[in-house]
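Hey L., structure's done. Input below.
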Amino acid sequence: MPKIPEDFIVSKESIYKSSEGEAELTMLYDKALDSLGIEYEDRMVDTRFGATHVLVSGPKGAPPLFVLHGGNSTNPLTFSWFLPFTEDYRLYAPDTIGHPGKSAQIRLSPSDNSYGQWVTDVLDALNLEQVPFIGPSYGAGIILRTAAHAPERISKAVLLVPAGIASVSILRMTFQIAFPMMLYRWFPGRKRLIRAVRWMHTGDMDEISVQTTDAVFRHVKLETKMPRLATKEELMEYKAPTLVLAAENDALFPADKVLPRAKEIIPDLVAAECLEGSSHLLSKQMQEYVQSRIRRFMEETQ
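Output:
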């Protein structure tokens, strides 16, 4: 592997505040994974930035599908959104390096293409030349960093409630997200936790998500920066068919900001659609719609 560019690394320190906190997050990771009720493989692959843990599920020999999870969260929580695809695809879902999970804890800069380099290293280690990608939230931002760095590795992409396209409203962030979060940190408790993260959820919060979110807030040095906004110029060589799905009531990446800019910067934008009435984290009903929409996109772009 090439030597790590030092300016690509934000921190080599542990993202966890304590070894006890890391153990709790690992326990909740395994609990969430077991709750999926699927057969899977655990793989560890080497990258220039450190070891990366990859969940693999689906029929051997089936077409590959590469899934990147949201930031400051664990892989199994996002993986659950795409379970139906394990019937027809071989899903590869890495734990994002520098985020909660079982990969190395080196935190990369989201302001350059280091995440794109990390993705290409993972693909190389898995012997995957060109694959379709799905990424919600922070994961979508990583796909765009990959599109800027190595566009030829992406055959098609789904960007769901995506980072990396439109900027976040500071005013909205302050009142809807930051203030409730400060109250929770000052006066921790289950009710304040649920109030602090209610903005993300369209429907009810499942218990494992509540427990994981609580543990992340207590034990992890949160990543506060999003992947930088992609530009039309850096995506000029990106030719993959792309589907963008943005949520109407998303406090981070609202559809009315994301969709117009996606049309400006993504060369082969097949569709840019609003998930009406949805917040950042999808309800079960909306997950089912998104699954069917992604499946239609995958079939139409073969």
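The two ends are 33 Å apart (CA to CA). The mean pLDDT is 89.

-- N.
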